[in-house]
Amino acid sequence: MISKGCSPDVLSYSILINGYCKIKRIDDAKQVFDEMIHRGLIPDTVSYSNLLSGLFQAGRVLEAKEVLKNMYTQGHSLNLITYSILLDGLIKQGCFDQALGLFRDMQNSYLKPDLAIYNTIIDAMCKSGKLKDARELFLELSVKGLQPNVRVWTTIINGLCREGLLDEAYKAFRQMEEDGCPPDNCSYNVFIRGLLRHKDPRAVQLISEMTGKGFSADVHTTELVVDDDLVVKQLLGFCEVHQEGKR
């Protein structure tokens, strides 16, 4: 492009940075970013966000923090996408406390977290053994005027199953539909896996219900089913009864 006398703009550089990051050529992405600045162009929030995403995915947290610091120095404000990248990156690199601090800063700023960001934090809380905090954050959604979507419901149900709180998970599973958010294929599979792992007989009922709605077991759920002889027998018995009922 440059050799043909056409000077790339910020958008062109941002696309190139994003492309390099997606194929894990982070050093090339950084070089393009630095070249953009050298040519007198000012990186925008998209440019910074693309580079931050690549650095976090590569596990280069310290470099990502330096880029973030530079972003602040240049007077750029974080948008929802940038916050999402930072939170996801920090959590995946084991920096949960820093992610939570950033989330709290966001809550106190003019830019409020959306459902996707709430889901990221709730999921991280569940996986780090902070189910009580996850519950409180989930309940906070309605106070903030946000209606949990199927993804958020599924996350909290999964967290409850991880802790063996199957009755509470079952209640939440039924509540989501009552609240106008019917479970999808992912919801059924997540909850059924939770029941199967704890040898809960309600798994058979949920499998039947799931297939009746046109959904199907994914590979992870299927593995748990075939490894449980009792569940297999119950399902076979259910199929026989169902077939006799059709005659």
Automatic annotation (TrEMBL):
Keywords: Repeat. PPR repeats lie at residues 9-43, 44-78, 79-113, 114-148, 149-183. Belongs to the PPR family. P subfamily. PANTHER family: MITOCHONDRIAL GROUP I INTRON SPLICING FACTOR CCM1, PENTACOTRIPEPTIDE-REPEAT REGION OF PRORP DOMAIN-CONTAINING PROTEIN. This is Pentacotripeptide-repeat region of PRORP domain-containing protein.
